[in-house]
Amino acid sequence: MVDWLDAEDARRTGGIKWAAVPDGTLAAWVAEMDVAPPPGVSVALADAVDRHAVLYPPLESMTDLPTVIAGWHGRRLGQSVDADRVLYTGDVIAGLVFTLRTLLPVGSGVVLTTPVYHPFFSSLDEAGMHQVRIPLLAEGRRFRLDVERIGEAFAAGARAIVLCNPHNPTGSAPTVDELAAVGDLAERHDALVVTDEVHLPLTLPGRTATPFTVARPDLAGRTVTLTSGSKAYNLPGLRFAWLVAGDDALAHRLRTPAFFARGAWSGPGQVAARAALDGADGWLDDLVADLADRHALVAAALADRLPDDAIAVPDASFLAWLDLRATSISADPVAALDAAGVRVSPGAQFGSEGRGHVRLNVAAAESTLDRVLERIVGAI
């Protein structure tokens, strides 16, 4: 069973989601969930503190944690992962910057499919890459990769694509056919595929999200997967994520730079990851069911106030993508919702295609989400 925190308890956690909003405003923006960690994680962390285990964390070769990670990928995601190809990093963004810097020449063109998780933009800048932004194709309430334009970008010289699978902020997951088509293009043009799959464990009931290496296992030698337990188990502040290199040659290239170039990870983060990945399967199943219920609440509350295609149908995660361009608050929906007492993420933050949209975090106690939705309805 998942322990959902009401607004008052969530604010007391001190996380950025609530700390950044004034009293009286409900936080529904940054991608943290208002839940306590899985019980086994809390016990493991308390035990680590009791043992004074707050020292420099061990490397991959010093423990069996990579084996635990590989087993979790196989059990939860149906993905074959070699433990010897797991490399630690502080978070997905640190891993992304490191991967691009290590594997690509400075100035290389890298495809992003927009609107997309906005730290990707600054990450490519930090890595010295050239952004090639290709809008997603909106098909009713779903979003698809524009495979034709991705191919054109590769033909014009782009050296890599960064996939967000499942996609943040829209919640859509590329189909196996889409992933396979991107793989065909990457193979044809000798391009790298870097895939952020941090939301994939939160695939909703009745929906499908597929790891890239499951869709195209033959392209392992040009694939790097980035992920962590930060979203699925609500552990973002513990600073622990990992890269999965697709083959031994790629793993060797990624291990060649000094380990600290991958971004600092924490010992408590390793402790929490082990406890979550190896002992919280039932908790995660319950969480995903609860998230499906919350998405249904959003759809029901806004169905009569928005056009049929204004609420994206998510395949995964706790993020709702709302198109408010047909409402009275279309000029500045974030300001209007702020005035109504709800903090959301501005759609334009994710790329120009997001203007007039907002990203709503639904991972709240039902009592909080009910109040959020009442205020949104009142504003529009």
Structure, described:
The mean pLDDT is 97. The strands form four sheets. The protein has a seven-stranded mixed β-sheet, with helices on both faces. Strands 11-14-13 form a three-stranded antiparallel β-sheet, with no helix packed on it. By secondary structure, it is of the alpha/beta class. The chain contains 14 helices and 14 strands. Helix content is 38%, strand content 16%.
Identify the strand order in the major beta sheet. 2-10-9-8-7-3-4
Secondary-structure class: alpha/beta
Helix-strand topology string: HHEHHEHEHEEEHEHEHEEHHHEHEEEH
How many beta-strand elements? Answer: 14
Summarize the topology.
Blueprint: H1 7-12, H2 16-19, E1 26-27, H3 39-50, H4 65-77, E2 86-89, H5 92-103, E3 109-114, H6 119-127, E4 130-135, E5 137-139, E6 142-144, H7 147-155, E7 160-164, H8 176-188, E8 192-196, H9 212-215, E9 223-228, E10 241-245, H10 248-255, H11 267-279, H12 281-302, E11 319-323, H13 333-339, E12 342-343, E13 345-346, E14 357-361, H14 366-379
Parallel strand pairs: 1-12, 3-4, 3-7, 7-8, 8-9
Antiparallel strand pairs: 2-10, 5-6, 9-10, 11-14, 13-14
Helix pairs in contact: 3-11, 4-11, 5-6, 7-8, 12-14
Write a brief structural summary.
This protein is an alpha/beta fold and 380 residues long. It has helices at residues 7-12, 16-19, 39-50, 65-77, 92-103, 119-127, 147-155, 176-188, 212-215, 248-255, 267-279, 281-302, 333-339, 366-379, and strands at residues 26-27, 86-89, 109-114, 130-135, 137-139, 142-144, 160-164, 192-196, 223-228, 241-245, 319-323, 342-343, 345-346, 357-361. Strands 2-10-9-8-7-3-4 form a 7-stranded mixed β-sheet, sandwiched between helices.
